[in-house]
Specification:
The protein is an alpha/beta fold. Helix content is 47%, strand content 15%. It has two domains: 233 residues, TIM Barrel; 63 residues, no CATH class. The chain starts with a helix and ends with a helix. It binds zinc ion (ZN). Zinc ion binds next to strand 5.
Length: 330
């Protein structure tokens, strides 16, 4: 019943009419991975951030039909105060730098002539290794162990029920998500040893190559930074490491693509907040023009360009339309 009501509301396009009256701002969608067969990657990336190719295509077609999809430049001018266009505005962003963005999502975006911004985890692209959260997902989803004997704390956590497994995964994520660089690698290696798993390298790298990233730029797409090693930046207390995550990641990407990197997307919203005043100061000083959070909501004119809200793109087409059409009231 509720779903039928949602569909009716979407089809009636009442919200389109009201949101025009409200000038409710820009809806910035946050995507991660788009796969032909999402089930093949659930253990490696996590089931909640993979869109099927088919659903993604329908979602982008829906946006291209009913909304003005803004480029980075158009978004920047609207956010800084230029008058919005008559049509409702959205932006499309991708976090992390997965190779499927290039192989699966890009052809769909290109066929529809739609702009997008790709935030890449510079360290993961450079090393061709997945971001830490993929290895944590894989460890807990593929382990045959019934108990996690945490060798760091001595705590034993059961893994038999799905709920236990999710809790253990979250506990490990909270520990590893604040680490950077070598400490992060060591913690991951220890976890994989505890759970008797290894990363299935036969699947190939999940990440784009720099060549792929350069092709995105060549095709007119905006590439931004998603840090070096994907930590929660508000929890990184070492200023040199924090500078590296924000400033060095920008310089590495710029060097590889020979184009200015103007956007940043804050990683790891497992912890809130995922940025703080020190982080914002580094962002400002490094010359970024826009920075995107994972806080849900619309972006209004004259909002702080360094703390832009985004919208979660649900994995089903119907839910997506509902979010799109009611975004103004969120
Ligand atoms: Zn991310």
């Amino acid at each position: 019943m509720w779903n039928r009501l949602k569909t009716l509301a979407v089809n009636s396009r009442i919200s389109s009419f009201t949101s025009k009256l409200l000038h409710c701002g820009i809806g910035i969608y946050r995507y991660h991975s788009v796969q032909e067969n999402p089930a093949d990657y659930e253990n490696l990336i996590g089931p909640t951030i993979i869109h099927s190719e088919e659903v993604f295509k329908r979602q982008i077609e829906f946006l291209a039909t009913h909304y003005k999809i803004l480029s980075f430049n158009e978004g920047l001018s609207q956010i800084l105060g230029e008058k919005p266009s008559g049509k409702r505005s959205v932006m499309i962003t991708f976090d992390d730098g997965f190779v499927d963005n290039f192989r699966v999502a890009l052809p769909i975006l290109k066929a529809l002539g739609v702009p997008a911004i790709f935030f890449v985890t510079a360290g993961a692209v450079e090393s061709r290794e997945p971001p830490w959260f993929c290895r944590v997902q894989n460890a807990f989803r593929s382990t045959k162990e019934k108990v996690w004997h945490d060798s760091l704390t001595g705590v034993k956590r059961p893994l038999t029920e799905n709920g236990d497994r999710s809790e253990a995964l979250l506990a490990a994520s909270r520990r590893i998500g604040v680490l950077t660089d070598g400490a992060q690698g060591e913690a991951l290696a220890l976890l994989e040893k505890d759970l008797q798993v290894s990363w299935p390298t036969e699947k190939g790298s999940l990440m784009m190559t720099w060549e792929d990233v350069r092709k995105l730029v060549h095709d007119g797409y905006e590439v931004g930074s998603h840090s070096l090693s994907h930590p929660n930046l508000a929890r990184v207390n070492d200023m040199d490491r924090l500078r590296a995550e924000i400033v060095t990641s920008k310089h590495i990407i710029e060097d590889k693509i020979q184009t200015e990197v103007r956007g940043f997307s804050y990683p790891n919203p497992i912890f809130q907040p995922h940025w703080d005043d020190t982080v914002l100061e580094f962002i400002r000083q490094s010359g970024y023009q826009l920075a995107f959070t994972s806080v849900s909501g619309m972006v209004r004119q004259k909002d702080n360009p360094y703390t832009l809200r985004r919208l979660w793109a649900p994995l089903s087409f119907q839910e997506f339309c509902w979010v799109a059409e009611t975004a103004c009231f969120r």
